[in-house]
User: Fold this.
Amino acid sequence: MPIEKSDLLQGTLDLLILKIVALGPVHGYGISQRIRQISKEVLQVQQGSLYPALHRLEKRGWLEAEWGQSSNGREAKFYKLSAKGRKQLASEESNWNRLAGAVAQILQTAD
Amino acid sequence: MAWWKFLLPKRASGRQLDSELRFHIEELTEANLAAGMSPEEARRRAMLEFGGPEQIKEELRDVHRVPILETTLKNLKWTLRLLRKSPSFSVVVILTLALGIGANSAVFSAIDAVLLRPLPFPDGDQLMKFAQYNTKAHNSQPFIAPLRVEDWNRMNSTFQAIAGYYAENASEISGPLPEKLTQAIVTPRFLKVLGISPVLGRDFSSQEEHFGGPQAVLISDRFWRRRFAADPNVIGKRIVLSGFRSSYLIVGVLPASFRFPDNDVDLWMAGPPDAPYAQSRESTWYRVIGRLKPGVGLEQARANLDAVQSQLGKQYPKTDADLVVKIQSLKETIVGGARKSLWLLFGSVSLLLLIACVNIVALLLARAAHRQHEISVRFSLGASRTVLIAQLLTETFLLASIGATLGLFVASGASHVFRSLAADLPRLEEIHLDWRIVIYSLVCSAVVTLLCGLLPALRSTRQGISGSLAQNNRTQVSSRTPLQWLLVGIQVGLAVTLLSGAALLLRSFQALGRVSPGFEPAGILTFRISGSYGETADWEALTQRINGTIEELRSVPGVEAAAASATLPGVPTNYPTELRFVEGAQDPRHKMVAESRFITPDYFATMQIPLLAGKVCSEPHFRAVPNRLSPTGQFLEPVSINVVVNRSFADAFLAGSTVLGRHVQVLENPFIKPDQAGEISGVVGDAREEGVNHPPSPTVYWCFGAPGGPDAVYFVRTRTAPMSLAKTVREKIRAIEPARSVFDISPLQDHIDEAFAENRLRTVLLTFFAVTAVCLACVGLYGTLSYSVNVRRREVGLRLALGALRAQIVKQFLLQGLGVSFLGCVAGSVLAAAFARLLSGMVYGVSPTDVVTLSGVIFLVLVVAGIASLVPAIRAARVDPMQVLREE
Assistant:
């Protein structure tokens, strides 16, 4: 069953977006597709959360945006990671891993 | 992207949002089509999956919206709450700024009114003042012959018009008592040059400007209200002037703001250029002003006037060949003298504001340390650094604005202060509070906000969330104080700079008071008696009238001596004249230049200037010379003139030779002709005639009869206080000269004090600023040391518990305070020495880099700093170790 927006831990969406964008310039549609594909349809991001998150990250200077041609020749807004965003991604990733590790540890030990 | 777009806030335009979202929907539709749906179905499903695009767009706009108004209001609300919570902090900051910004705006209001604004005439910057400079005699003459004014006006191509004027006093005798008036005699075009027209009536007609035409006057608004109770039907009435013994038709009333050439001018009358008595190119009558044509520069006008004058030189080689025309902006001639003093005051009051700011920075830093916890909490709750800095700056700005508003009250009193300290400051009546000053104060508070607020705001938000909530105040030792000590040092340094400037001015003031002027100003009453230049046609009669008046004055009970002179001794006036001796060869390379003074023979006895050799001069004889301009066909001129020289003159030009009996003769002087040589009859002691701040120059006193023409200054030495005789003197003059009025009656000492009013103004104000600066610096020192003591209480307690002596603790803190103050003093002395040049020309009897003054200032500041440090140091030593350790 897909996990909806409300179930995503706060801040997780930002981390996912940063990670996807780190792979190369990509538009909003591409991001939502990739999250769905990579998570094997487990995570489905609502457009209503995706776009505000993208614009927020752009405003903070973690993402940079540029208009360009999509693969089928349409005008699309492409996002890519800034140097600041790369740093942010690294720190959020390590935070997440620590948190996940800690949660896993508790789940295992408490069994 | 163009570089300038970075300067604009990034906005998500609606079109861009649309196309970004539309792309997504189109891609979804495409995918659905690929999955085999019909086009309508594909589109419907895509829209369904996407959700409401309008709602998303609204959310996106929220991301980009900068809620300026909401944020500011919220910040203000926060700030007010904080200010209420710490009232003493707020009051200290607000009062400091009220004084700092207020004093600054006050001085600025004077600078604005006096120096920055154009003169109160339309296009006042086009107005120029003229003088003629004699290249042979090297003297500048502001009084120009009427013919030459007309020539300049006719022949130039760079001025709209050139006009002349001079002011003299007159007696109006149509009322029960003669009333002294100030009248200006003006050439045609006078009002045109100044760009003024009458508010009532009209300017002179061309008949009225011709000799023998109808006699007309324009009157001032002041005279109109005083004498005619602002009667709108005043045009057509007549006044009678004693000097000319004829009645004048009032043709116009000039605006209330128009007070030229003098503040107290009452009426203007036309001086006809075609009058027979105005036809000499050697007469010295008019001060001359001109209005430049639009777009004409000063240099262009100078070149044009040079050409005009050299043409006149060819036409009239005898009178005009050696002359060149000098022009200067009229404003400069009026306010130029006050410029240096005003900027000096502005500089010092800005230093004061800087000290106030530094003080507030220190206070804010200390407070920020207390608020570290609050700031950390807000960081951890997700506030960004920008938001926090904006909040902290809003706090400072609110304080600065309240301070600036209160400061406006200080500034509104400025004109009163300037009026009471320096009544002769030019354009004084134009100093007042207006919107320019309000805006200036606002700008001041914005600058102050950035100066004071930015550093504390940046510092206190620097560590961000990493300086975690766990930080314990008790483990914190004085980590934050080096910067605060630097600030204290800066304050002390700036205060020392100001105080040494003030001390130098004070010492000059003192030195000026101690100086022995060579005459005795105390006990002298001075006044003038109205006269007219028409009287100069019969110099002998004029001399007899003045001497007769002096004779009568001497008979008044309580009067010891009486005399007259052209000038007031001790009040700066220069009248350098080039002379040569009649007997003996003259060294042509050595020019002999001496001050000229015109006096009556009793002058020396009245002023108590000692006679060193010979005898005082006696009045001249007169000879009749034919003169077609005079009604009698002749002119009575003084001959066989006596002069008295001062000791400096004898030492400088006649050392080792006979002094008495030598004849001096004047070169190139409009008042004394070369053939009117003066015989030296005596030598008197040196007196500081040209100002008490000026060492006596070689001086020749001329007994020329009628000193200063009709407008002599009378001196009466009284047995009692000078002003107690004022009424008696007035009555005496009325008895002997019923048609003349007495004016300007005041003690000589008042005139001398008045002449140095600007000196007093800058000394008093600079001293006030400097004392305030020292107080502020001490408050800063006290505050910082108290803070440091507070932070280090635990350390002190521990040391006391381990056996440290209380005296050691006191000494340690005291030395810390004194050490910083001393470094501040050193820096301040360097600054003071660097600024000393600014004071040159303002100090008297003391060098601008006087070591004694500077050491005195440093000593004083260190003593005050010691007292300010002692209180917190003693408080530190009173720490109870048991209590502090229990607090752990």
